[in-house]
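Journal club prep, notes for RB
We'll compare a predicted complex against what the paper describes. Inputs for the pyridoxine-5'-phosphate case:
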Amino acid sequence: MARLAINVDHVATIRQARLAPEPDPVAAAMFAELAGAHGIVVHLREDRRHIQDRDVTVLRKTIKTKMNLEMSATKEMVEIAQKIKPDVVTLVPEKRQELTTEGGLDVVLFETPLARVIEMLHGSGIAVSVFIEPDAKHIKAAQRLEADYIELHTGAFAEAQSFPNRQEQYERLITAARLAKKLDIGVHAGHGVDYQNILWLKNITEIEEFSIGHSIIARAVLIGMDRAVREMLQLIG
Ligand code: PXP
C-alpha cells in the first residue's frame, strides 16, 4: 500500500480568512497522524497566504511521522528549510496570482540553479523531491539533479473531462512512474487526487506516496458539520 501524506494548507486558509488563531494546522496534523496518515505536507508560500513561519516551526516539533515542506527554490526558502530541517523538501514552481500550484517545475530549463539548491538541501541532510509533469525529459533531469524523489503532477489526469483523455493521462502517469522506478528515484504523486480518482491511481504500484490536501480537507469540513452543529445546539439548549 502506498503511503498517505496529508497537506494541511487549507486548514490554514480558513484560519487566515479571519486572521484568527483557529483552526490550527498543527492540530489538524495531529488528528491526521492519529488517523494513520504517514506524513504531513505544508506549502510555505512566498506570500504567506496560508501556512505561516510559526506553523512550520511548531510542526517540526510536533509531527511524529514525516514532515514534507513544499517550497519554491528561492534563497529565502532554502535558508528557512536549512533552519527547520524538514524530512523532505518538495520543490515546486510558484506564481503569486495562481490559486494553487498550477504546473510542474521545469527541471530542464532550471537545471543549473536547481542543482545548487538541491546540493545545499542535501548538505543540510534534507531529502529532496521535485514536483514535475509526467514527462521522460523531466524525470531524466531529476535523476541528473540527484533528486531523491519526484512527485508526479496528477492535475491533468484529475481534471480530464473525457474518458479517452483521462485514460491518456493515466497512461502518461504509468509510463513516468515506471521510468522513475527504473532510474531508482522514489515516486510520489499529487494534485487533485480525490475519493474517486484514487481508485485508478492506487493501481500504479510504483507510486510510493500520495500527497493529498483539498479533497480530504473538503470532506473533513462536511462530515464534521453534523457534530459541530449538534455540539453548539447542546450548549444553547
Ligand atoms: N502536491 C503538490 C506539489 C501541491 O502543490 C499540492 C497542492 O498544494 C498538492 C500535492 C495537493 O493537491 P490537492 O490539494 O489538490 O490535493
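Talking point for the session: The first helix runs from residue 9 to 18.
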